[in-house]
Amino acid sequence: MSDVECVSASGVTAGGGQGVGARLPRKEDDRFLRGRGQYVADIRIAGLKDVAFVRSPLAHAHIKAIHVPERFSDVVFTAADLTGVAPIRAVSGLPGFKSSEQPVLATGKVRHVGELVAMCVAPTRAEAEDIAACVGLELEPLPAVHDMCKAREAGTALVHEHWGDNVFLETLFEVDIAPALDAPIKVTREISTARQCMSPLEGRGVVASFDHRLDQLTLYTGAQMPHIVRNGLSDCLGIEQGRIRIVSPDIGGGFGHKGILLPEEVCLAWLAMQKGLAVRWIEDRREHLTASANCREHHYNITVYADRDGTLCGIDCEAIVDSGAYSSYPFSACLEAAQVASILPGPYRMPAYRCRTYSVATNKCPILPYRGVARTGVCFALELMLDAVAREAGLEPAEVRLRNLVRPEQMPFDNITRKHFDSGDYPQAIRRAVATIDVASWRERQRLKEVDGRLIGLGLSVYCEQAAHGTSVYAGWGIPMVPGHEQATARMTPDGGLEIRVGVHSHGQGLETTLAQVAHEILGIDTAKVRVIHGDTALTPYSTGTWGSRAMVMAGGAVGTACAEIAERAKRIGAKLLQLDPASVSLCDGRVCGPNSSIALSEIAHTWYRRPQDLPPDVDPAGLESTSGYKPRRDSGTFSYAVHAVAVAVDPDLGEVELLDYVIVEDGGVLVNPMIVDGQIFGGLAQGIGTALYEEMPFDGAGQPLATTLADYLLPGPTEVPAPRLDHMETPSPYTMFGVKGIGEGGAIAPPAAIANAVNDALRPLGVELLHSPISPRRIVEAVLAAREAERPAA
Amino acid sequence: MKAAPFAYERPADLKAAIALMAEAGESTKIMAGGQSLGPMLNLRLVQPELIIDISGLAELKQAERRGDELVIGACVTHGDIEDGRIPDVTRGAMQRVASAIAYRAVRNRGTIGGSLSHADPAADWVSALPALGAKVTLRSAHGVRDLAVEDFIAGALESVLQAGEIVEAVRVPVMRASARWGYVKACRKPGEFAHAIAAVMIDPELGTTRVVIGAVEAAPIFLVDAAELFGGRITHNFRQQFDAHAADALLAQAGMTSPADRHIHVTVLRRAIDEAAA
C-alpha cells in the first residue's frame, strides 16, 4: 500500500480544485511579475561597503609576493590576514579519493584563472575595483594543466604536488564484459561535451553583517542549500553554528551553482565577524563566466556491442571528467565522473558492462554540478551510440530503443549497475513520441529534399532522472552532505491560516505554490491562506536543501505528513466541540464534519489559541503546530523519464541548425501542478538547446578562459528556443506520498543527444557524424569539408 | 566590473564639442550611443581620462538629401534608419541592414557614426557602407575632410580619425535603378557578432560592382572592381558567372588560412550575389 493510500485511508484527504493535480497559477508570480522580488543585490544595510577581489590572472603559478600600496593597507586583506580560517575541504569516502584544500584566499600557489588572492573594501564597487587594480601580484608561471585527456601523462605539471598525479579519483565498475566482445556489431566512438557555464539570470552575491545583540553573523547569500552553507561556514571559520544565520532571499535561478559554498562567502563572513564591517559582493558576469560557474566537461571512449537486430550485448566505456582545480563543497570533485559509471546504462537492459572513470584535476576553476549533473553527458554519449548502432543494423533509431528498454511488466527493475527503477512505461513513451512527431512524414520530406538545399534530420533521445535519492545512496558517496529525513513545520494561525516552514529553497520551482497545494490536499485550507516560509536557517527546519530534483518528493512528503498530523489533532478538537465521537468525524473542504453538523478549521484554530477554556481537558498539548519528518518508503530515488524527438534542418555550407519541431513525452509520476511542470520542462529545454548548439567555455594552452563576456559565451534566446509539444504520462511512484517523482532537472538532460542525433541523421548522406557538443556551425562545416576531402579520389 | 574614473562632458552643440576636443588630451573618448564603448569602459579595456558625450548634439541627428546623396548625421541611430525616420535613397537596402543589427535595445541607442568610428570588423555598417559607395565627413578644429568609408576604416577597431577629429556625417549616394543589392551575414542568433558578411552592389548595365567581404580579422576586404570574381566581366548573367574558386583564392591570398572560414565566407558571398540577382 502506498503512502497516498495511507493518507486516504486515514480519511483526511480533503483535496479540491487547489490540491494535487491542479494547474494553479503560481502564488510567487505576483511579486516576481511586478518586479517586487527581493534578491541579495536589493538588500541595503546601513554603512554597507562593497568588496572587489584581486583574482589570479594566471592558471598556474607560484605566488612570490603580493604588493599592497601602503595607503590601502587597512582595506586590503590577503591570506596572511585570515589567521584561523580553514580551507574549504570536500572529501569523498570513495576509496582512493585524493582530497584538495581550497584556500579561501590563495596561499603559495594559484591553481586557476580567477582564483581569489586578495579582497578590497571600499564605499562602492567601482572604488573597490580601483583599489584592486593597484594591488601588485608577483607570480612565477608554471605550466598549466588544461587538457584533461593529457593530464594523466607522465611528466605533466601537477595541480596538487603531493598527490603525485592529477587524478582526484579513479573508479571501475564491471560486470564481466568478455561475453560481449564477439558480438556481430561493434561500434566505437570518441565523444565529448564542452565545458559550460551555468548562467542563471542572477549570479552569486553575498551581504554579510554582524548582530551584536544576537552575537550572530547574518549572511545573506543566494543559496539553494542555506543550512549546508551554515555547515561549511562553521567548519571554515571554526565558530559554532548558533552564531551563524544564513538568509537566502529570492534567487534568480540556481541550477547547482547556488548549491556550492564559495570562498567569497567565507571571505565576507570573516570581514563581518573580524572587522565588524557590513559588506557586500555581487558577482559580475565576467567573474561568473571565468571564475566560478563551470560545468559539464566530459570525454568518453566508448564501445557498444550489439546483435544484428540491435539487441545490446554490452557497453565498454572509459570516461574522463575535467574536475578543475579543487573539490567543491559539498558535492566534491568526484560526484560527476563517478556517477557516470553508475548511470550510463540507464533504462536499457544489457548483460555485460564495464566503465572506468577518472575525475581529473586541471588548472581550471572547479567543475560544479549543473542541472542534470552527469546525466546530460551520459545521455549524449549513450544515445549517440544507440543511433550509431541503429545505422549499423539498418534500423530506425526508435526500433533499437524499443528492443532494449526495460518493459513495464519488468517494473520495478534493477538495471546492470543495480539502479532501482521504481516505475514507468518507457516503450509507450517512445511510441507516443514517434507518433506525435510523425516519423513517417519527416522521412518522406527527407526523401523529397528541400528547395533551399538544407538537409532534414530526425533525432530522438531517452533519458531517465533519478531524483530524491536519499541516505542509502549518499552515505555511499561519503561526501560532506548526506540527506536524511526531510522535515517541515506546519502551523495553523489563530485566524485559520497556515504557515509552512521548510529547509528547502524555492528559486524557480514554484514551491510556494506546490507545497501550499499539498497542504490544501490534506487540510482543505485555501492556498491563498497558506504561506510557505523558506530560505532562512533561523526560521526553518534543517534540510540539505534544494538539489537533485528532491524538493517536491521530500519537502512535499514532509509538508503532507505535518499537515496530516494537524488534521488528526484538529479532528479531535472539532469532534469535542461538535459533541461527537472522534471516530465519526472527517475532514472535508476545510471543515471537520460529522453526520449532521460541521465546524470550520478556522473556528477550531480560534478556540485553540484564543478560547482555550473551551477545549476538552484531555486535548493534545501539541496543538495545531507540527514539525514532522518524511522519507519515501524506499530512498533509492524516483525515476522520471522522457523521450525527446526533434526534427531539424541543417545548412551544410554555413553549419546552421534550425529546430523545426520538438516533441517531449514526459513521465514525472503524479504531477502536483502540471503547469509548473510544463514550465520546468520549457526552461530545461532552453538550457539543453544551449548545451547542444551554443554554449562553450574554451581555454587556451595557458589555461586562460576565452569566453569572458556574453558576446563570446553564447546563450540561446527566445528566437532560438521553439515551443515544444508536450505530452504527459503519469505513472505514480510506488514509494512516495501521492506517487510524485522529482522532475526538476530532466528538461536539460535529453536535448543535446536528440539534437545531435537529428543533425547526424541530416548529414548522414554526406558521411558526416558529429560527436562533440556544442554542435557549432564551425564544427559542422569542418566535418562536411573533411568528408568531402575524404570522398575526393586520390590525385 | 565598473569603469575606472573618468571626467565627463556633454557639450550642447557641435561647436562646443569640437572646441572641447581641440583642448582635450590624447586620452579622450567620444561617446555617442555607447553600445560598444559602455561595455569596454566597464571591462576597463579602455580607461580614458575624459569622455565627451555627443548624444545631445541636435546637428548630428539630422538627415537630409543634398543633390544625389543623402547626408546622415553621425548620431542618427540604427533604429531611426530601421523605422524609416530618415529618407531612403537605397531602395530599402539601408533599412534592411539596420533592422538586422544586434537587437532592438542596441538599435535604439547605437549610431551610424559611432559604429564606423568603433570600426569593429564584424559590424554591419563597416561592410555595408563601402558597398553602397558611401563617404564620411570628418570635422575637427582645423576643418573638414571627406573620405570614402573604405579609406576611413584602417583595420580591426582602427580608423584614420585623428586626435580632435569627429565623424560628422555619412553621405550615401542615391542607388541607381539598375543597381542590384545583396547583403548576407552569418550569425547564429540576433545580437551575436557575425562570422561572415558579404555586401554586394552590382550594376549589370554599367558593368560595375562593389563587393565587400566583412567580419574578417582585419578591415573588410573591399573590391571596387570585382570582375575577377565573375569570369572577368559583369553581365546580367552575373549570378551564373560567379566563380567560387576565385573567391576562395582571393581569401586565401588575403591571409585567411582556415578552409572552413573561407568556405563560410564564400558561401555568404554567393548568397549575397543570389539575393542581388533575385
Automatic annotation (TrEMBL), chain A:
Q: What class of enzyme is it?
A: oxidoreductase
Pfam families reported in the protein's UniProt record: Ald_Xan_dh_C (PF01315), MoCoBD_1 (PF02738), MoCoBD_2 (PF20256)
Instruction: Report the EC number(s), separated by commas if there are several.
Output: 1.17.5.2
List the GO molecular function terms.
caffeine oxidase activity; iron ion binding
Entry keywords, A to Z: Molybdenum, Oxidoreductase
Q: Which residues form the Aldehyde oxidase/xanthine dehydrogenase a/b hammerhead domain?
A: 34-143
Q: Which InterPro entries match?
A: Ald_Oxase/Xan_DH_a/b, Ald_Oxase/Xan_DH_a/b_sf, Ald_Oxase/xanthine_DH-like, AldOxase/xan_DH_MoCoBD1, AldOxase/xan_DH_MoCoBD2, AldOxase/xan_DH_Mopterin-bd_sf
PANTHER family of this UniProt entry?
Answer: ALDEHYDE OXIDASE 1-RELATED, XANTHINE DEHYDROGENASE
Q: What is this protein called?
A: Caffeine dehydrogenase subunit alpha
Lineage runs: Bacteria, Pseudomonadati, Pseudomonadota, Alphaproteobacteria, Hyphomicrobiales
From TrEMBL, chain B:
Enzyme Commission number, as recorded: 1.17.5.2
Keywords (A to Z) from UniProt? FAD, Flavoprotein, Oxidoreductase
Top enzyme category: oxidoreductase
What PROSITE patterns would the database entry show?
Answer: FAD_PCMH
List, alphabetically, the InterPro entries matched. CO_DH_flav_C_dom_sf (IPR036683), Diverse_Substr_Oxidored (IPR051312), FAD-bd_PCMH (IPR016166), FAD-bd_PCMH-like_sf (IPR036318), FAD-bd_PCMH_sub1 (IPR016167), FAD-bd_PCMH_sub2 (IPR016169), Mopterin_DH_FAD-bd (IPR002346)
List the Gene Ontology MF annotations in alphabetical order.
Answer: caffeine oxidase activity; FAD binding
Q: Does the keyword Cytoplasm apply?
A: no
Q: Could you tell me the superkingdom of the organism this chain comes from?
A: Bacteria
Which parts of the sequence belong to the FAD-binding PCMH-type domain? Answer: 1-177
> Oxidoreductase: is it a keyword of this entry?
yes
PANTHER family documented for this protein? XANTHINE DEHYDROGENASE SUBUNIT C-RELATED
User: What is the name of this protein?
Assistant: Caffeine dehydrogenase subunit beta
Its source organism is Bradyrhizobium ivorense
Tell me the organism's taxonomic lineage. Answer: Bacteria, Pseudomonadati, Pseudomonadota, Alphaproteobacteria, Hyphomicrobiales
Name of the gene encoding the protein in the UniProt record: cdhB
